Amino acid sequence: MGLLSDPNRRRALINLLTRLNAPICGMPVEWLMKTMQARGLEVYTQRFSRTLPFPDENKERYMVKGTNVYGILRAPRAPRTEALVLSAPCTPGDNNNQAVGLLLGLAQYFRNQIYWAKDIIFLVNEHDLIGMQAWLEGYHHTNTTGMDWSPLQGRGGSIQAALSLELSSDVVTSMDLVLEGLNGQLPNLDLANLFYAFCQKIGVLCTIQGKLQRNDWDSVSGYSHAVQTMMLMVMKQASGRSWGDHGLFLRYHIEAATIKGINSFRQYKTDITTIGRLLEGMYRKLNNLLERLHQSYFFYLMPSLSHFVSIGYYMPAFGLLAVILLLRALDLWVQLATPPSSSPGVLSVLTPLVISHLTGAALYTLPIRFQEMAVEHFPVSETEAVVLTAIAVYTAGLALPHNTHRLLSGEGTEQGWRVLKLVAVLYLAVLLGCTALINFSLGFILALTLVPAAAFVTPHVPKVLSAFILVILSPACTLLFSVFFFQELQEMPVSFLDGWLMYLSVISQGILDHSLYGSLVYPLIALLVYPCWLLFWNILFWK
Known about the structure:
Subunit structure: Heteropentamer. Part of the GPI-anchor transamidase complex, consisting of PIGK, PIGT, PIGS, PIGU and GAA1. Interacts with PIGK.
Subcellular location: Endoplasmic reticulum membrane
Protein name: GPI-anchor transamidase component GPAA1
Distance between the termini: 80 Å
Radius of gyration: 26 Å
Structural class: alpha/beta
Strand content: 15-25%
Transmembrane segments: 297-326, 424-457, 464-486, 520-542
Function: Component of the glycosylphosphatidylinositol-anchor (GPI-anchor) transamidase (GPI-T) complex that catalyzes the formation of the linkage between a proprotein and a GPI-anchor and participates in GPI anchored protein biosynthesis. Binds GPI-anchor.
CATH class of the largest domain: Alpha Beta
Shape: globular
Low-confidence stretches: 16-25
CATH architecture of the largest domain: 3-Layer(aba) Sandwich
Number of domains: 2
Number of strands: 12
Mean pLDDT: 86
Oligomer: single chain
Strand order of the largest sheet: 5-1-2-4-3-6-10-7-8-9
C-alpha cells in the first residue's frame, strides 16, 4: 500500500491543506502544538531571539523573535539512538502553507506505521535560517553565533539525515533539489541520487538549479545547457551562503538537502499526494540505513541530476592555475639567487605586508562599528552605512603604495620588489589551495582573476594600463562581474543600475551571513584575499 492510497487519508490531507490556505500572520504556535499532539507526537517548542548587527533590508527585520515547534515520532522498533528530520519553514503570509500542511499530513501517516527504526522529528521553524540555527544549536548544545534561545526540552537520537520542504506555489509542476550549503558544503551524493531515483520511479518531474534535464547530451545545445546548469552550481557554491534551511545541518556532519516545489513548467502538474509519496519513499530508504551516508562523493559538480563531475576531473583545472604561481615563484627565486648589487632591507618588505593586513582588518571590523557614526552624519540607513563604509575602506587601500613609501627609510631596491613578489606569490598559492579544498568554486573563481594578476605585475610594466587591469581583476570587481554573470545564467539579465543595487545587496548579505551563521567568505576576502591583492598593487607602484 502506498502513501495515502486510502481515500479517507487523502480526503483528510486535502481538508487540512484547505484550512491552511488561510494566510498565516506570524507563527501559529498553539495551533501547531495541538495539531501535532493530535497526531500522537511528542511536541515541544523553543523560543529564540536575535538582534542583527544591522537591519536586513531584504527581509525587513532587525530584532528577531520567534518560536520553533517540533514533534518527535519515537521509533517503535529501535533503541532510539538515531533520528531523521523533516522541516518546513513557516514564513509570514501563505508562502509555505502547503509544505507545513504536507508535513503534518505525513506526521499522521508515519504515526500509523510500525517499521520506523529511527526517531522522526517534524520541525516547523520560524524566521527561516535564524530559527533553524537556533534549533540546531539547542539540539547540539552549542552556541557559536551568540544567539539567545531556550534549551530544548525534548531530543531524539543522533540526526542521520534531514530534508527541508518548501512549496512556493499552490500549483507545483516540478520538484527542485537544492544542495548548496553554508561555506560551499555539499551533502553526500547518494542523497541526490536517492531523490532522483524516487522521482523517476513515481514519475515526478525533477530539476536542479531550476533547469529541466535534457536527453540530447551529444548536441551543442545539450552541452551548453549542461554547462549552464553546472556554472549555476559553481556560482551558488562560491557565494558561501546557505541556499536553504538544509545548509546549516551540513556543518554538523548531517546529510541534508532542500526540496522545493516550483511552478515553472506549466505543461506538467504534480499533486500533493505524489509529493507525499516521494518523501515517504525517501524516508523509508533513509530509515533502513545502518550507517551514515558516506560511500559516495562529498565533492562534486552536477550538470544534471543524472550526471556529476567528480573532484578527480575538475581539480586538475585548478592545479594548472596553481602551477603558474609555482613556476613564477621559482623564476623569482632563481633571479634572487644572483649576487645583488644591494640587498633589500627587512623594513622594505615587512612594511607592505603589515599595512596590507591592517587595511584588511579595517575592512573586516570598521563597517559594522562605524554604522552609527555614519548614520548620524550622512542621510543613509544603517545597511547603506555598512556597505558604503566597506567600499570606502576598500577604495582607501589603493593609496597603500604612497603610505608605504612614506614609512620606508629609503627607496625600495630592485631586489626588494622581487622578494616581496616571491612572498606574495607563495602566499597566494597557499591561500588559493586551502580555499579550493574547502570551497572549490570560490577558490577557482579567485584563481581565474588573481593568478593572471600575480603573473604579470612588475614595477616596469606601463602603470596606467596595468593599474586598470589590476583593478578589473580585484576581488571587488570579480564580485561585481559575478552578479551580472549569475543573472545571465538564470536567464534574467539586469541593467547596470539594477546590477549595482544587487551588488550592494550581496555585500550587505555577505556581512550578515558571517555575523548570523558563521559564513567564512567575508572574513576570507577581507582578511586574506584583499591584503594579498594589495601586495601586488604595491609591487606595481614600487619605487
